[in-house]
Specification:
By secondary structure, the protein is of the alpha/beta class. The protein has two domains: 6-174 and 339-356, Glycogen Phosphorylase B (Rossmann fold), CATH 3.40.50.2000; 177-335, Rossmann fold (3-Layer(aba) Sandwich). It has 13 helices and 13 strands. The protein has helices at 16-29, 71-88, 98-107, 130-143, 155-162, 177-186, 208-217, 248-256, 272-279, 292-295, 308-317, 323-335, 339-356, and strands at residues 6-11, 34-39, 58-61, 92-96, 114-117, 149-152, 168-170, 195-199, 222-226, 240-242, 260-263, 283-287, 303-305. The protein has a seven-stranded parallel β-sheet with strand order 3-2-1-4-5-6-7, with helices on both faces. The protein has a six-stranded parallel β-sheet with strand order 10-9-8-11-12-13, sandwiched between helices. Strand 11, helix 9 (272-279) and strand 12 form a beta-alpha-beta unit. Helix 2 (71-88) crosses helix 3 and helix 7 (208-217) packs across helix 11.
Length: 357
């Protein structure tokens, strides 16, 4: 039997949707490849994160990875990932998130097939000052000249990539439907008031200020934010419940016993939380940004909103929305956005690259 090819994932943003994505993809690909993951722990990384991964996956912590720019720590992380690659001797390297993408593309010379998935470009992050965003874009332009193929996770992100490099392709995010369904099947459904929820870190990107405004204007509706974060004080409306970081099974329990999922983000890659809500047949109401509008076909499988007035109007009317919208959302996930399809497409990219070496 032929020895499995080694795939090395280098991941800085090991939390939230990226964490779920890495878990689902690696657990599927380990059936075909020898998987190594070099990663950093973030505040939102589950304490028991190792339990999420197949036991055949090799996990290697990068001590000096950090989201913020820090020249000393970034250089140390650069040295760490080079050392890891020398020891692992991978056949393919895949970089995930902007920090890993920059460090990895500089660290490696392109002799080994290399891929990069941004999961939302840093230069599109509106919480950054214009000068910092300009620096991020300049770094992406410089790194784009390296021998590396960028695989975007949404069509909107792919369009941005094509402005930087022609070495670009697209594989949509997917979710592990079997794992999600097994949790749903074990979840008790209870009587509850009409409930709107979202999931993720309470940060500028996820727009808690808009979430709070929507809640204030719908005082008879219960709102739940599944997660925690530095801007939790922005959620002041008395009808908002903040769960804090909870186990995945508990997060799904909150979601199952809610009616509408909203995602008022200022920017996105392609949100896993949205895909999972669609699978659960929730009415999904999202902001008009890359990632969200790549998935939601307004009025057919959910709703796209540009301001608070539109969010409030849709939520107010949603109790009478036709079942067809929920069903169409679910069908779209089954057809396109599932882990097995995603893993197969990534495997094809890796094999094409290996055959060209």
């Amino acid at each position: 039997m032929a020895e499995k090819k080694k795939i090395l994932y280098i991941v800085e943003a090991m939390g939230g949707g990226v964490f779920t994505y890495i878990v689902d993809l690696a657990n599927e690909l380990v059936k075909e490849y020898d998987m190594y993951i070099a990663y950093a722990v973030r505040k939102q990384t589950p304490e028991n994160y190792m339990e999420y991964f197949d036991k055949g996956i090799h996990l290697i912590e990068v001590k000096n990875f950090g989201r913020a720019i820090n020249l000393v720590k970034d250089f140390m992380a650069f040295c760490e990932v080079q050392k890891i690659a020398r020891e692992v001797k991978p056949d393919v390297i895949h970089l995930h998130s902007s920090k890993a993408g920059a460090i990895g593309r500089i660290a490696f010379n392109g002799k080994i097939p290399m891929f990069y998935t941004p999961h939302g470009y840093s230069f599109l992050m509106e919480d950054c000052k214009p000068m910092k965003r300009m620096i991020y874009k300049m770094v992406e332009k410089i790194c784009a000249k390296r021998k590396c193929t960028t695989i975007s996770c949404s069509m909107g992100e792919h369009q941005e990539t094509l402005k930087l490099t022609k070495r670009a392709t697209y594989v949509s995010n997917g979710i592990n439907m079997e794992e999600l369904q097994s949790i749903i099947d074990k979840t008790e459904k209870v009587a509850h008031p009409f409930t709107v929820f979202t999931l993720g870190r309470i940060c500028y990107q996820k727009n808690p200020t808009l979430f709070n405004e929507i809640a204030e204007r719908l005082p008879n509706v219960r709102f739940i934010w599944i997660g925690d974060g530095e801007l939790r004080e922005n959620l002041k409306s008395p009808n908002i419940v903040i769960t804090g970081w909870v186990e995945r099974s508990m997060a799904i329990k909150y979601a199952v016993n809610a009616d509408i999922f909203i995602l008022p983000s200022r920017w996105e890659g392609l949100p896993i939380s949205l895909l999972e809500a669609m699978y659960m047949k929730k009415i999904c109401v999202v902001s008009d940004v890359i990632g969200n509008r790549d998935v939601i076909d307004n009025g057919k499988n959910g709703f796209v909103c540009s301001n608070a007035d539109q969010f409030v109007e849709i939520i107010h009317e949603a109790q009478n929305e036709p079942k067809e919208i929920r069903e169409q959302a679910h069908k779209d996930i089954l057809a396109v956005y599932n882990t097995k399809v995603m893993a197969k497409q990534y495997s094809e990219k890796y094999r094409e690259a290996l055959n060209c070496v």
